[in-house]
Design a protein that fits this description.
The complex is a heterotrimer of chains A (about 220), B (about 625) and C (about 200). With about 625 residues, chain B is mostly helical. Chain B is about 60% helix and about 0% strand. Chain B has helices spanning about 25-45, 50-55, 60-80, 80-90, 115-145, 155-170, 175-190, 195-215, 235, 240-270, 280-310, 325-360, 365-380, 400-410, 410-425, 435-455, 460-465, 470-500, 505-530, 545-575. In chain B, about 60% of the residues are buried. The chains are: A mainly beta (about 220), B mainly alpha (about 625), C mainly alpha (about 200). At the B-C interface, α4, α10, α11 and α12 of B face α1, α4 and α5 of C.
Chain lengths: ~220, ~625, ~200
């Protein structure tokens, strides 16, 4: 009987260990989150988009969003952004990828931002040339959509993999402000088909949280 | 009958029980080696998908070849290559007809051609993956405790949902057939074996390989398509989707072969006197299921190969940009998928109808009606698939036909219910644990069936499609139907299969815990669906939090009730070890006339059948020595 | 209930033969449904012609000559296997010829790919063409294995004067194989009509 008890307990422990490992594998794949910095007139979110994630990333060939600090350094690979409810969110996106163009020119214009505008390299605009778009930052539930212009195809000092140095590599800088509503979880995503190599460019990073989409966690 | 003088069964050489040789350990070692060799070779192939490789970092050719190499290595390690190689060299076919009793557990970890051993391998193997699928369900309900994401990300959630669905609908296809049809069909028809014992073993080991392939998706980013693998999401999917393709391909091959083997056995290997009108109703249900498996599963294999070719060979079956269509997948998948639902359900019909006469002490009411019902369901199941596409932009003129064909299928299903009620009517009912599970089946399947009519009706389907209402419906039919009848079978035949008694009181506690928690879990989901909560979405409106929390807590209790069963099983087999009686239920079926445990060779002589298959309630003939009514003579 | 040499009764000998033949016929059902998926794909995609993508490019049409050669090889192979299973006197020679012709059919199929002039991405037709013919060729390899084992067993048994094998069982194996193989060839004929003539 003692032998059977030991065997049964051992088997039970083995199963529990297997279950723990199974759950752990899932949990360790969950993208983390980044909290927007608080300023006197709202929250400040600094982001970057790159043509390829870091070389040590599980998908080093995928385009991706990153969180940075105000200087464009301190790169963090998270796409869940924590922002306060009923407040202004100022967003700065440094864009290091080249243009891929839009299939739907309508989304080359900004919507849902304060004033209906954004700035591209310091210049206030309402839309960009659809052929120059590289990515889009859109939060459909809030009606926010802002196009991000790409760097020229022949840029000499184009960045390869993240992290990119804003002082030495080519990029465009887009800023805009939008207002959050009630607390909740809001999906954001890029609408430019940029999953190169996948069918219709919609696979891979386009359908994986942590790359070209994520969540806005309004708290 | 031809009685051929042969050597005694005990003359069959024994296999070695050591670690060295063709067994599971060797299978795993060669499986891993096969994976790496094929994976590395795959990296050298410059196929069509390679042009995408530099951009995506994903080489589907390499991964799919890796799976193929791994499975082939695994099977070779188990010894499945030995016989085919002998045949290529011109050796004559060898049919293993003499099984021997072997002590110890080693026989369970290698190829066996004894249908009883294979059925136990199936039971344990499928139980492992059933509990993995159940664990996924617990993870889903944990996530849905909150209307926002709080434990898993959206991708992980979708992968867990897909894993749960694929595991349950893929592996559990053989959940009933694997353990019970393999064990009972030869016994019930008076044969000592299945028609093709090696193929019987192969179907089991293929299924185990499939389960491992599916779980490996975790290491490749998972798949976000759910168990249906819908296009174009699947063609766009990451490498984790290759695991889905590999898994279902293996499952579909295993299904086809299992169905073929069972059908051939039933059609050609019935003992003298086992006429079609004496065939046990469970065997009829297996025959109906087998025909579905033989015909429907190859359609899935072909569909999956198309998907694999899209991802590796640059074809465009499902890509509108190159002349394909995503709806081609939907059509082909459901041509298989709807019969698949009945592959899960019909064996449950057979189990319940087989058990009710025993516990109502009455002959089965409407034997021919029940047979017609099951065969009718099997036949009609091929003509209903487009009801899954009612909201997919199909030609509106097609809708009435598929609506009617789907509604008509409730008629043969109704036959089964009629036979259940007719058998119970004025019976001397014994409320044993198997009987409770049979009655639980009737209650649950009724709700599943009635809610199915709403889904088959176009106007109501367009409002409920893709919602939790549909989810509740099919859980009532699959879990409420298949799993409850599965437990009825386990409690009924378990003592015969294991040789030990199960605790009746604990079994009743488990039944009530499972029955109440099941209904408490899936009943409210009808309401959740009507209130607009879609399936496969990680978040939901906060107004539905209360219902979802209720459902999650009920689901946890349901999970605990299943774990409690594990304890009952372990207690009976490992600790109590009370030998089971030969025929504790006073059944008149042949398997209960054999000693417990049943010897490896089943019968000493081939039995002869005569009389009615369910002579309950009738006086037992005085002279039972010659030919026993409904069951077997010489054994 | 003890199984002893005296009391143990063998199963009826005809069970093994009948089960193999029955399984062969059922296997034909499986083959029919497997390839029905490609028939469905062909007509479904052709009818939809999404984005005018049924054929992309100018020369999406396989060589009729090679198609006829492939079909002829399979048809002859099927006929010879049919006869081999029914004429014990010629079973080895006809069986070997059937195997050689089946091998030729599979080989010609791969040769056709090399000179096709269009690729799998040349539209819906091309997808069905490659998918159907490639899986058919794989099925041909499976048929080759079955035919080889059937013929090899007979050849080996004949050499030993049927000392260790039952000629009835072996010939029944040939019969089961011929049922499946001729059915498979019939599917190939339908494939030729659909892919080359429709």
């Amino acid at each position: 009987m003692a032998r059977r008890t030991v065997l049964t307990l051992s088997a039970t422990l083995l199963v529990i260990a297997a279950i723990a490992a199974y759950v752990f594998l899932y949990l360790t794949n969950v993208p983390g989150s980044a909290t927007a910095a608080q300023t006197a007139n709202g929250a400040q979110l600094n982001l970057a988009t790159v043509p390829a994630a870091a070389t040590n990333d599980p998908h080093p060939t995928w385009v991706s969003y990153y969180v940075t600090n105000g200087q464009g350094t301190g790169w963090q690979h998270d796409t869940t952004f924590v922002v306060p409810a009923h407040s202004l969110v100022h967003v700065t996106i440094r864009q290091y990828d080249s243009s891929s163009g839009l299939r739907n020119p309508f989304i080359s214009q900004a919507t849902g931002t304060v004033g209906g505008t954004f700035t591209l390299d310091g210049k206030t605009m309402q839309a960009i040339n659809p052929d120059l778009a590289s990515h889009v930052f859109a939060i459909p539930q809030l009606g926010v959509s802002v196009p991000l212009a790409g760097i020229p195809d022949n840029a000499k000092n184009a960045c390869g993999n993240a992290p990119c140095d804003p002082s030495t590599t080519a990029h465009t800088t887009t800023t805009f402000t939008f207002r959050t509503g009630a607390k909740g979880l809001y999906r954001w995503q890029c609408f430019v088909p940029c999953g190169a190599g996948y069918v219709l460019d919609f696979g891979g990073p386009m359908q994986t949280v942590g790359y070209m989409d994520g969540f806005l966690k309004v708290v | 009958m031809t009685a051929v003088a042969t050597p005694s069964p005990t003359a069959t050489p024994r296999q070695r029980n050591g670690l060295i040789g063709f067994n599971l350990l060797t299978g795993i070692v060669l499986g891993v080696a096969g994976w790496w060799i094929a994976y590395l070779l795959g990296g050298l192939i410059h196929g069509a998908s390679i042009k995408a490789f530099s951009e995506t970092g994903q080489n589907d050719i390499q991964i799919l070849l890796g799976y193929a190499g791994g499975v082939l290595g695994f099977l070779a390690g188990l010894g499945f290559a030995n016989y085919p190689i002998r045949r290529v060299l011109g050796h004559p076919p060898e049919i293993p007809t003499h099984e021997i009793d072997e002590p110890g557990l080693a026989k369970y970890f290698r190829i066996s051609t004894d249908h009883k051993i294979i059925s136990k391998q199936y039971f344990v193997g499928i139980a492992i993956f059933f509990f993995v699928g159940g664990l996924n369900a617990m993870l889903i309900r944990t996530e849905l405790l909150s209307p926002t994401t709080h434990v898993f990300g959206a991708n992980q959630y979708l992968t867990i949902v897909g894993m749960h669905g694929a595991m349950m609908l893929g592996m559990m296809t053989s959940g009933m057939i694997g353990p019970f049809a393999n064990y009972l069909v030869p016994l019930m028809i008076g044969s000592r074996r299945m028609a093709f014992p090696r193929i019987e073993a192969l179907t089991f080991w293929l299924l185990m390989a499939a389960g491992v392939v599916l779980v490996s998706t975790i290491f490749f980013g998972g798949f976000q398509t759910g168990w249906t693998g819908y296009e174009p999401l699947s063609d766009q999917g990451t490498a984790g989707y290759d695991a889905y393709l590999g898994f279902f391909t293996l499952v579909s091959i295993s299904m086809s072969l299992l169905g073929l083997n069972l059908a051939a056995t039933i059609v050609t290997m019935r003992a003298p006197g086992m006429t079609w009108s004496r065939l046990p109703i469970f065997v009829w249900s297996v025959l109906a299921t087998s025909m579905l498996m033989v015909l429907a599963a190859p359609m899935l294999t072909a569909t999956l190969l198309m998907g694999a070719m899209d991802r590796t060979a640059d074809t465009g079956f499902f890509l509108p940009g190159v002349g394909g269509s995503a709806f081609l997948w939907e059509n082909l998948f459901w041509v298989f998928g709807h019969p698949e639902v009945y592959v899960l359900a019909i064996p449950g019909f057979g189990i319940v109808l087989e058990l009710l006469p025993v516990f109502a002490r009455k002959p089965l009411w409407g034997y021919r009606l029940a047979v017609a019902g099951m065969m009718g369901v099997a036949l009609f199941s091929f003509f209903v698939w487009q009801h899954h596409l009612f909201v997919s932009g199909i030609n509106a003129d097609l809708r009435p036909f598929y609506m009617l064909s789907t509604e008509i299928i409730s008629l043969p299903t109704g036959f089964t219910f009629l036979c259940v009620l007719g058998t119970l009517w004025r019976g001397r009912i014994r409320m044993t644990v198997p009987m409770l599970f049979c009655l639980g089946w009737a209650f649950n399947f009724l709700f599943g069936g009635i809610s199915g009519v709403f889904n088959s009706d176009v106007p109501s389907d367009v409002t409920t499609h893709g919602s939790f209402f549909v989810m509740a419906h099919f859980h009532y039919t699959i879990m409420g139907g298949l799993v409850f009848s599965l437990f009825a079978a386990i409690y009924y035949w378990g003592p015969k299969m294991t040789g030990y008694q199960f605790n009746e009181r604990l079994g009743k506690i488990q039944f009530w815990a499972m029955f109440i928690s099941f209904n408490s879990t899936f009943g409210p989901l009808f309401a959740v669906g009507f209130l607009g909560m879609p399936r496969r979405v990680v978040t939901y409106p906060s107004g539905l939090t209360g219902l979802n929390v209720w459902v999650s807590i009920s689901a946890f209790v349901l999970g605990l009730s299943l774990l409690f069963f594990l304890w009952i099983l372990v207690k009976a087999v490992v600790f109590d070890r009370i030998p089971a009686e030969d025929n504790p239920w006073h059944s008149k079926s042949i398997e209960w006339q054999l000693p417990t445990p049943i010897p490896a060779y089943d019968f000493n002589t081939i039995p002869t059948f005569s009389g009615d298959p369910y002579p309950y309630g009738e006086p037992v003939p005085a002279a039972m020595g010659g030919e026993m009514p409904a069951t077997a003579g010489a054994m | 209930m003890d199984a002893t040499h005296e009391t143990f009764q063998e199963e009826p000998r005809e069970w093994a033969a009948r089960s193999l033949t029955a399984a062969a016929k059922m296997w034909c059902g499986s083959l029919a449904f497997f390839f029905a998926a490609f028939v469905f794909a062909y007509f479904y995609l052709k009818a939809l012609d999404l984005n005018h993508g049924w054929t992309i490019g100018k020369h999406v049409s396989p060589s009729g000559g090679l198609g006829v050669a492939i079909l002829a090889a399979y048809l002859l192979s099927g006929l010879l296997m049919y006869l081999a299973a029914r004429r014990p006197s010629d079973e080895i020679s006809m069986g070997v010829a059937a195997i050689v012709l089946a091998l030729l059919g599979v080989g010609l199929q791969f040769l056709e790919y090399a000179f096709l002039g269009f690729g799998p991405a040349s539209g819906g037709y091309a997808s069905v063409f490659f998918g159907w013919t490639a899986t058919y060729a794989l099925g041909g390899l499976w048929g080759l294995y079955w035919m080889e084992t059937s013929v090899a067993a007979l050849w080996r048994a004949r050499r030993n004067g049927f000392a260790q094998a039952d000629p009835g069982m072996l010939r029944n194996g040939m019969m089961a194989c011929s049922i499946c193989w001729t059915f498979f060839v019939a599917i190939g004929t339908i494939m030729f009509v659909v892919l080359y003539l429709v």
